[in-house]
Amino acid sequence: MSFEDDLARLEAIARALEGDRLPLDEALRLFEEGVARLRAASAALETAESKVKRLVQAEDGSLTVEDLPT
Amino acid sequence: MPPRRDSVRGEPTGESPDSAVSVSSLAMFVKAIVEGSAPPLWVQGEVTGFKMYRTGHWYFTLRDADAQVRCVVWQRDASRIPAAPDEGMRVVAFGRLNVYAARAEVQFAITRLESEGDGLWRKAFEEAQARLAADGLLDPSRKRRLPKYPRVIAVVTSPDGAALHDIVAVTRRRDPTVSIVVVPALVQGENAPRSLHSALRRVAKWGRADLVIVGRGGGSREDLWAFNDERVARAVAACPIPTISAVGHEVDVSLCDLVADLRAATPSAAAESAVPVRAEVEAGLVRFGGRLRNALSRRAERARTEYARAQRDLVQSARRAIELRRAWLGAQTARLDALSPLRTLDRGYAVARAADGTPLTSVADFVAGADFSVVVRDGTVDARATAVHPEEK
């Protein structure tokens, strides 16, 4: 599940919860799912600062990334 | 008599009928004079009688009001000119005089050709645009939504150019955790289209990027021309990953701009469109947390209210049911009471009953000589029917 999917799902969950139409048990279930997704999305943001890389093609045609010499 | 020979080399000199030169020699003579003495130069004129041969060479005539000169553009040079000139187009051409020896005809061999204004560029652009449109590649419905939160951005550009520098700087500022992968390509010169095309194919094959930015910083029209190359534009259109074109030009639109999912005016603008500000994303997550908690506590509050109301309703309806039943019971009791034979006995009446308890209410129920009982207010009396007298009608 991508960060973007997590956020889209969170939006849907928040709307459903705010909609006041849900049975209580369903609301609780959605809340738990929302908290889990919030946690996943926050964790995705915790990745370390990234370097600029370069896409290189090996002799055999395979593609890899390496750090860009600066 | 043999023709006179040059005293040293024995060649005809053309100085007398005896030393007449061949037609070929004359033609070669013309060629040597013309090609040896006329420097390359720019010529302006109007194009007429344009023909492209299957070999890719172009032939036409340049003319003005008073004269005309045959012109040729060899295939190798023609391939570098953006488009073939139209009939009557005013052009400036750079080339040198050249003699076609077999006919001793002078022609102007053109290596560069520019139209007045930007006619040729515009023509080349419009022709390519029409072909892209015919293939549906300019259809607005082809434009894909860009990912809102790209984590890996591929940048097809020169690794040494200002474009990469700007994209990295803007991306770092907005969200330092977003990865940038450079896919090196030449962005100007004759080999740029092939290089850009191949870089775009590599990005597609690699497949790990969420988004592709293809572009370069500003430059002259010729510097930017690779981004108007039809093959490059088709490679952008064919890219399976959403694309932003970022060719640093203010006024003109490139073919790549037309087929990309988003056109950015500059590489910096491309990075700004592509990368959300991290602080805002984090604030967004915090807001989500708040929304979820608020929504749930409102929902729970409502549940408590509903529970309390249901409880109250239940008690009330139970109470009402009991009261109803009590009232009903009272009414029934009063009614029974009113109908009770005991009340009649109280008033002094008596009831006759057979031994089995059956009420005896008619003379027909009595048998003379049979026993029966009489129920009165305060007890039962045993009795016997001595005679039965039906009422006379």
- Mass-distribution shape of chain A: elongated
Pattern of helices and strands of chain A: HHEE
* N-C termini distance of chain A: 34 Å
> Could you describe the largest sheet of chain B, including whether it forms a barrel?
5 strands, mixed, barrel
Briefly note the structural class of the backbone of chain A.
alpha+beta
Radius of gyration of chain B: 56 Å
Distance between the termini of chain B: 192 Å
Provide an overview of this structure.
- The complex is a heterodimer of chains A (70) and B (393).
- Chain A is of the alpha+beta class and 70 residues long.
- Chain A has helices at 3-18, 24-45, and strands spanning 52-57, 63-67.
- In chain A, helix 1 packs antiparallel against helix 2 (24-45).
- Chain B has 393 residues and is an alpha/beta fold.
- Helix content of chain B is 39%, strand content 22%.
- Chain B has helices at 23-37, 75-78, 119-134, 162-174, 192-206, 230-238, 255-259, 267-274, 278-339, 341-346, and strands at residues 41-52, 58-63, 68-73, 90-100, 105-115, 152-157, 179-184, 211-216, 243-247, 262-264, 351-353, 371-376, 379-384.
- In chain B, the strands form 3 sheets. Chain B has a 5-stranded mixed beta barrel. Chain B has a 5-stranded parallel β-sheet with strand order 7-6-8-9-10, sandwiched between helices.
- In chain B, strand 6, helix 4 (162-174) and strand 7 (179-184) form a beta-alpha-beta unit.
- In chain B, helix 4 (162-174) runs parallel beside helix 8 (267-274) and helix 5 (192-206) runs parallel beside helix 6 (230-238).
- Chain B is rod-shaped, with a radius of gyration of 56 Å.
- Chain B starts with 22 loop residues before the first helix and ends in a 9-residue tail after the last strand.
- Chain A binds chain B through residues 2-4, 7, 10-11, 13-14, 17-18, 20, 22, 24, 27-28, 31, 34-35, 38, 41-42, 44-45, 47-55, 57, 63, 65, 68, and chain B through 147-149, 151, 154, 159, 164, 168, 176-184, 202-203, 205-206, 278, 281-282, 284-285, 288-289, 291-292, 295-296, 298-300, 302-303.
- Strand 1 of chain A pairs parallel with strand 7 of chain B, so a sheet runs across the interface.
